[in-house]
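Hypothesis: this fold can be encoded by more than one sequence.
Test: take the structure tokens below, design a sequence, compare later.
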């Protein structure tokens, strides 16, 4: 079964994971199986995670092509540790995360992710929990404006929230294009603007519905706890909010976080770094990949290797 989109930074991901026959790798965002297939082709085994029920046909195709090497577990990032424990494996050699919404989810109007296609106002990556319609139809002004600002960087978040509250009194929101039109009117959208006026609001709703940032933090901590010494952690992000969390996590866990005040008491015990960076900064797509796959434009890859130190058990703010 052919994949609906090309996996981003695939060569850099495989180079950072460095899988060899017999390795056990967790692909924490299976999607259409792009990373998984590339890992399996090296002879490694893959435990794939995904909370999206629509990935099942792709998983079945992978299982048919690589019998005995592949397992899919329906779970978000926060279920990584449980999925690894249930696998019965005693070693984990790598974990890869591909953060954010996939192009195939955006392309499915019935999922409600896109303001360019009419569909139910859902936005759930799984099939449980609160939908985007629940948020815009029930949340108070303050919390709604807060997520628009925090997750979408929408400077006029209060105006958008006010417009939504006024409209829902007359009729609740049910469709994506309906909400997009209200947001566009509230912001005075101009034809020819570089991005659609509803872009930031839809992004904020998607992140809130799926608790994407909370799941990312939980997934990073689970990877730290499960990876064996020498195991590789690879994370591909597409947004500054996500990349900031990954960068902060690795900065702390490599022992490179800025020191405290010289007047503060010295810690009784200095924790050993639980990761060593594979390279400084983040890798990005080259022009060749950008020409072939514009989706890679905002992608950043960070990678680290697990040390033999105990997990830190907390994450940088």
């Amino acid at each position: 079964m052919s994949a609906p989109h090309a996996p981003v930074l695939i060569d850099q991901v495989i180079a950072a994971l460095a899988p060899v026959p017999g390795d056990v790798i967790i692909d924490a965002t299976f999607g259409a199986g792009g990373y998984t297939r590339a890992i399996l082709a090296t002879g490694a085994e893959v435990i794939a995670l995904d909370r999206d029920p629509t990935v099942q046909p792709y998983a079945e195709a992978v299982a048919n092509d690589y019998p005995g090497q592949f397992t899919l577990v329906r779970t978000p990032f926060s279920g990584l540790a449980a999925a690894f424990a249930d696998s019965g494996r005693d070693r984990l050699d790598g974990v890869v995360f591909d953060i954010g919404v996939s192009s195939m989810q955006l392309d499915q109007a019935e999922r409600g992710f896109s303001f360019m296609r009419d569909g139910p106002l859902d936005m759930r990556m799984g099939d449980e929990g609160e939908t985007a319609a629940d948020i815009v139809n029930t949340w108070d002004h303050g919390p709604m404006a807060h997520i628009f600002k925090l997750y979408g960087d929408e400077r006029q978040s209060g105006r958008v929230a006010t417009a939504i509250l006024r409209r829902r009194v007359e009729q609740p929101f049910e469709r994506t294009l309906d909400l997009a039109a209200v947001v566009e009117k509230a912001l005075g959208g101009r034809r020819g603007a570089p991005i659609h006026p509803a872009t930031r609001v839809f992004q904020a709703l998607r992140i809130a519905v799926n608790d994407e940032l909370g799941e990312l933090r939980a997934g990073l901590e689970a990877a730290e706890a499960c990876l064996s010494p020498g195991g590789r952690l690879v994370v591909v992000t597409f947004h500054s909010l996500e990349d900031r969390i990954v960068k902060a996590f690795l900065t702390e866990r490599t022992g490179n976080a800025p020191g405290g005040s010289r007047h503060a008491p010295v810690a009784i015990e200095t924790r050993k770094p639980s990761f060593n960076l594979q390279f400084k900064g983040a890798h990005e797509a080259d022009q060749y990949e950008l020409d072939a796959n514009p989706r890679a434009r905002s992608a950043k890859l960070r990678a680290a290797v697990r040390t033999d130190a105990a997990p830190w058990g907390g994450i940088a703010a």
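The chain has a mean pLDDT of 88. The longest strand covers residues 300-306.
Hypothesis status: open.
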